[in-house]
């Protein structure tokens, strides 16, 4: 079946599902494959649960209401690309090492004050998530904000060509996925693939004009729109405070966010700048940002048993971990406690990067620090180190001594450090 014909079916049944546990009536089921599963085997189950059609790529599973294609994943991607061209929505592409999802949510919060918008759900930002986001564009969608993630070269290039964004923004270039990218230079090269695409297509670029890497990359490019804390050539935004919540000021208007830490300032700036570009009034920009509350273990503030807890356990890399620790050190509070979990995908740099984090905590005079994970277990430190979460759990249950404290929790997603909340 040609993509144009499949797209006609999609317009009649515009909801895509790849998981039979989440099937709803009239969904189109795409039978994706993985290392440990074969979606073709679940096509009948999807249809029995109410799916309108099942897209499969193995002939032995063919039958009524099933559409046989050469490859289900590539068909999903081609359909998404076709739908993106079919849609009249403007598309903003977004990538970076840190803050992608928060920035995406802020941009959506701002633009939705004036426009019909859609945005990537959660962090579904890979070769499957991006097509699903594009396919969520409705007839009345005016702007789509598409988050793109990557852990190796050419991935952002592929997603950019799939998405064909009209505008793009890179949050930053940090020490994330060093193993896949081959070091910091590889991260810069890989993330810059979004700007490379936009420049080659003569599209609009949003930038942090205070970021020297972005300055160099976009030097001489005309269609760039930036924010800065000091450069008068770009839109001026000032950091008023971050103790703990970020307060920004633009055009003598203070914007009070629900985001913790000065490292979230540039995320707010991007949303303000993009809102201004799309002619959202400053008062509506303010309403959008002030109305956004982070969730899903991202800089959440929790009060429990006399403790004031900052839970930032969604993910971590050396750049975001360092920034968060520095910010926590600046906060005015007593009895500070750090729970820091392993950072993943650092390759040969893992031991050195974890050692640096421990040294930073010591340099900032943190006394009560708990380091959790196999990577931290490899370093030298006077802090308490636990090879596993279970080891930490045993210790905390035996030594319930953390009360009336300010606690910061951060680690990579696989560490699931939100479980610490149950132990406090």
TrEMBL record:
Ranges of residues in domain Mur ligase C-terminal: 298-384
Stretches assigned to the Mur ligase central domain: 95-274
Keywords: ATP-binding, Cell cycle, Cell division, Cell shape, Cell wall biogenesis/degradation, Cytoplasm, Ligase, Nucleotide-binding, Peptidoglycan synthesis
Pfam families per UniProt: Mur_ligase (PF01225), Mur_ligase_C (PF02875), Mur_ligase_M (PF08245)
Subcellular location(s) per record: Cytoplasm
Keyword field contains ATP-binding: yes
Residues annotated as domain Mur ligase N-terminal catalytic: 15-62
Catalytic activity: D-alanyl-D-alanine + UDP-N-acetyl-alpha-D-muramoyl-L-alanyl-gamma-D-glutamyl-meso-2,6-diaminopimelate + ATP = UDP-N-acetyl-alpha-D-muramoyl-L-alanyl-gamma-D-glutamyl-meso-2,6-diaminopimeloyl-D-alanyl-D-alanine + ADP + phosphate + H(+)
Pathway recorded for this protein: Cell wall biogenesis; peptidoglycan biosynthesis
Keyword Transport: no
Function: Involved in cell wall formation. Catalyzes the final step in the synthesis of UDP-N-acetylmuramoyl-pentapeptide, the precursor of murein.
Family named by the database record: Belongs to the MurCDEF family. MurF subfamily.
Protein name: UDP-N-acetylmuramoyl-tripeptide--D-alanyl-D-alanine ligase
Natural source organism: Maribacter cobaltidurans
Lineage, opening ranks: Bacteria, Pseudomonadati, Bacteroidota, Flavobacteriia, Flavobacteriales
């Amino acid at each position: 079946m040609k993509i144009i014909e499949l797209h006609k079916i999609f317009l009649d049944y515009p909801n895509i599902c790849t998981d039979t546990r989440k099937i709803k009536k009239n969904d189109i089921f795409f039978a994706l494959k993985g290392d440990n599963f074969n979606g073709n085997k679940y096509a009948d189950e999807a249809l029995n649960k109410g799916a309108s059609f099942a897209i499969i790529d193995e002939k032995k599973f063919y039958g009524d209401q099933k559409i046989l294609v050469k490859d289900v994943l590539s068909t999903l991607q081609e359909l998404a690309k076709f739908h993106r061209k079919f849609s009249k929505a403007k598309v903003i592409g977004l990538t970076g090492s840190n803050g992608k999802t928060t920035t995406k949510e802020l941009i959506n919060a701002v633009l939705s004050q004036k426009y019909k918008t859609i945005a990537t759900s959660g962090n579904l930002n890979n070769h499957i998530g991006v097509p699903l986001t594009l396919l969520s564009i409705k007839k009345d969608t005016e702007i789509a904000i598409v988050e793109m993630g990557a852990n190796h070269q050419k991935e952002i290039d592929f997603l950019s060509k799939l998405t064909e964004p009209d505008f793009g923004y890179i949050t930053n270039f940090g020490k994330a996925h060093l193993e896949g990218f081959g070091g910091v230079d590889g991260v810069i090269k890989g993330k810059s693939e979004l700007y490379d695409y936009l420049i080659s297509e003569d599209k609009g670029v949003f930038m942090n004009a205070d970021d020297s890497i972005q300055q160099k990359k976009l030097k001489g490019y005309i269609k760039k729109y930036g924010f800065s804390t000091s450069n008068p050539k770009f839109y001026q935004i000032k950091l008023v405070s971050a103790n703990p919540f970020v307060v920004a000021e633009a055009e003598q208007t203070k914007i009070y966010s629900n985001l913790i830490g000065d490292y979230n300032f540039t995320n707010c700036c991007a949303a303000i700048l993009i809102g201004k570009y799309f002619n959202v009034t400053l008062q509506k920009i303010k309403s959008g940002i002030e109305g956004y509350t982070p969730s899903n273990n991202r800089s959440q503030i929790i009060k429990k048993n006399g403790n004031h807890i900052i839970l930032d356990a969604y993910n971590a890399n050396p750049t975001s971990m360092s920034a968060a620790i520095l910010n926590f050190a600046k906060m005015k509070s007593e009895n500070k406690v750090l729970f820091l979990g392993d950072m993943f995908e650092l390759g040969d740099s893992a031991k050195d990067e974890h050692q640096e984090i421990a040294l930073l905590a010591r340099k900032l005079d943190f006394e009560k620090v708990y380091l959790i994970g196999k990577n931290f277990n490899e370093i030298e430190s006077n802090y308490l180190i636990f090879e596993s979460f279970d080891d930490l759990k045993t210790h905390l249950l035996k030594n319930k001594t953390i009360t009336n404290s300010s606690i910061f929790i951060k680690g990579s997603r696989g560490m699931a450090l939100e479980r610490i909340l149950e132990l406090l």
